[in-house]
Design brief:
33% helix, two-stranded antiparallel sheet
Length: 378
């Protein structure tokens, strides 16, 4: 009797195992079609093909969080038109030239620009007096004079904007780089958007400068100017190596003036701020404007944007077309050795009365200036 009950229990146990196995098989069979019903396709077709715009994919997701991969046509119709589809404005010398890839600009005002004028004490009267009488009078708060000696009379005109760099008055590489180092540091402190350097024999046409810089973003890497050479300069590389290798780069001549965006100027800091500019210049043994070009082109690998809107006394200024003079950004004039090298423009002053032609240009731009002849018309 005992053996019979044990046999029955074994049979019941085996039957139970068989039923459990059958039940598990049925459950797995019923669940498999549900898994196969989910869309297994990958979703690359719902992504935009333009590089850098993968985040646009989120706009095609519905409320449940699933990607609308099957609705590719709707996505291609509703996505915004890429900026490349519109007409592009040319780059170069045009004042409206734009940076590739930039779409919108914030309005630029004169107060956003830091204009540095490099001079020396012996030119305070012969050169600076003319600048204060002309274009500096229209941008007193934005113009900073960097010199090498105290001048009480000049202090009355410029106030805190006259900066004694305590650099040497000699026209040497070391003295020039010393002043440029102070210019750079003062610009960084100013929090302004653009740094523009000119010499004391430059006339800055402020409307043209504003128009040119408004075509770019100050947060981008922008280095604007005019080379004095028709080829890149070459020097021994003593910053990144021991000088056994050479490096080639373009630079904008300081005699014509140049402009640097704040975004780029901040990147120059390791080689330019707090006296480092002088150290860098000594390593490559080049003057101030060449050192600026070296840091930007050779070290930061940002190319100079060549423009013919900047002018120095080194070029033949008489070749500049008369009808384009007022559309330039900077002008200059020849020194004692070449007094005839001035722009050809007619106005209310004779060449003897206005040998630099700065007064004539100024009265054409600002005819209401009290000392301008009343018969001067733009």
């Amino acid at each position: 009797m005992h053996l019979s009950s044990v046999g029955i229990s074994k049979r019941c146990f085996l039957v139970s195992l068989a039923l459990c196995a059958l039940l598990l098989l049925l459950i797995s069979t019923l669940q498999t079609p549900q898994r196969q019903g989910e869309p297994p396709q990958p979703r690359p077709h719902a992504r935009p093909t333009r590089a850098g715009r993968g985040n646009k994919l989120h706009s095609t997701r519905n409320a449940t969080g699933h990607s609308a991969a099957g609705n590719v046509k709707d996505f291609s119709v509703t996505r915004p038109r890429p900026p490349e589809a519109g007409p592009r404005r040319p780059e170069g010398d045009a004042p409206h030239a734009s940076l590739p890839g930039s779409q919108s600009r914030e309005p630029l005002e004169l107060k956003d620009i830091f204009i540095a004028v490099k001079t020396t004490r012996k030119y305070h009267k012969s050169r600076l007096q003319l600048l204060f009488q002309t274009w500096v009078s229209e941008a007193k708060e934005q113009t900073f004079i960097f010199t090498d000696g105290e001048d009480a009379e000049l202090k009355k005109k410029a106030g805190a904007n006259i900066i004694n760099t305590n650099c040497s008055a000699a026209h040497t590489r070391q003295a020039l780089c010393c002043k440029m180092s102070v210019e750079y540091d003062k610009f960084i402190e100013s929090q302004k958007k653009w740094f523009c350097h000119v010499d004391d024999d430059n006339y800055v046409i402020l409307p043209s400068l504003l128009q040119l810089l408004s075509s770019y973003s100050h947060t981008q890497d922008v280095y604007l100017g005019r080379p004095s050479l028709d080829h890149p300069i070459e020097t021994a590389e003593r910053v990144k190596s021991d000088g056994s290798a050479s490096v080639k780069f373009w630079f904008a001549t300081g005699g014509a003036g140049f402009c640097i965006s704040r975004g780029l100027a901040l990147k120059m800091s390791p080689w330019a701020s707090l006296g480092n500019f002088i150290t860098t210049a000594e390593k490559i043994r080049l003057p101030d404007d060449c050192t600026i070009g070296y840091i930007i082109e050779a070290l930061l690998e940002v190319p100079l944007k060549h423009t013919r809107l900047f002018h120095s006394h080194l070029e033949n200024l008489q070749r500049l077309r008369t009808d384009s003079v007022l559309r330039q950004v900077t002008l200059s004039y020849g020194g004692f050795e070449n007094k005839r090298n001035v722009v050809s423009i007619a106005g209310g002053f004779s060449l003897a009365e206005d040998p630099s032609r700065f007064k004539t240009v100024h009265c054409l731009l600002y005819p209401k200036t009290h000392w301008c002849p009343h018969n001067v018309h733009h």
